[in-house]
Amino acid sequence: MNVLHWEELCFRSSSIMKLFRHQLPNGGEIEEHEHDFHEIFWVLSGEGVHEVNGERTRLRHGDLVWIRPRDRHRLTAVSRKPLQFCNLAFPANIIAGLIARYEEFRYYFGGDNRQPIMIPLSESLFEWLERGAAGLRNCPDSRLALDRFLMNLIGELAAMRMNPYRSCPPWLQEAAAELERNPEHLKLGSRALALLAGRTPEHVARELRRFAGMTPSEAVNRARIDYAARLLTGSDLTITEIAYQCGFGSLSGFFPAFQRFCRETPLEYRRAHRNFEQSCCPKKSGSVFTAGRSGSAGARR
């Protein structure tokens, strides 16, 4: 397997980043490799299959992917339209200092999970990303420009994680709020938002992707996991009971979804947040404690 080194990528120059645009024809492939630097890339058009550390994910327009040092990955174009994507690479020491100062950077760049982060972007955030990348092309040797770009990107993503519906039309915001307010709606599955909004499933799916970067199924799973997190800290239900109460048909569906959303297993989440609640509020051990919610905007791995 090919191993790429930063010094070779930047031709032993003093460059602190490399920004590329790539195009792969249908069936074209970037062979499996790993590297000693960080990389993020986003899909401009076409579709592809991305294999990271032995697991495959389908990629499409607007998907943003992180690759950490030592992740093994390959990319294959699988649509008639060429797969076009933009790739930003930079040395690991650039991120080390930011991870030390900001917890948000650890989530995206320093995770110990087997799979790195992959997020489908809303149209507005995708356009913002393209404008930011255009700015980087004008100053490829500026550490200030790179730091500013990365901090602004993480800030935008953090805001989207907290409220992915912030840019949606009012009718979609209201439907999403009702979905999260009433757990009974979670049993409706991917139909829930369309029924609550009184719109066709196709229209809801289109607008949700455009403004929030999610599919209806991802929106429902987000609400289910948010509800599960509250039950884990505020009830004595078993994990199996919580999974079924939140609308999951099996534990095999619940566990991976919960880990994608919260970055830990349900049991780890319950122990950590109950311990925190008891240390902060020892006289209120029976109260519901809403921990700092890590709401997702469709992040998947």
From TrEMBL:
UniProt GO MF annotations: DNA-binding transcription factor activity; sequence-specific DNA binding
SMART domains hit by this protein: HTH_ARAC
InterPro entries: AraC-bd, AraC_XylS_family_regulators, Homeodomain-like_sf, HTH_AraC, HTH_AraC-typ_CS, RmlC-like_jellyroll, RmlC_Cupin_sf
Transmembrane segments: none
Occurrences of domain HTH araC/xylS-type (ranges): 173-272
Source species, domain of life: Bacteria
PANTHER family for the chain: HTH-TYPE TRANSCRIPTIONAL ACTIVATOR RHAS-RELATED (PTHR46796)
Protein name stated in the entry: AraC family transcriptional regulator
Protein's organism: Victivallis lenta
Phylogenetic classification of the source organism: Bacteria, Pseudomonadati, Lentisphaerota, Lentisphaeria, Victivallales
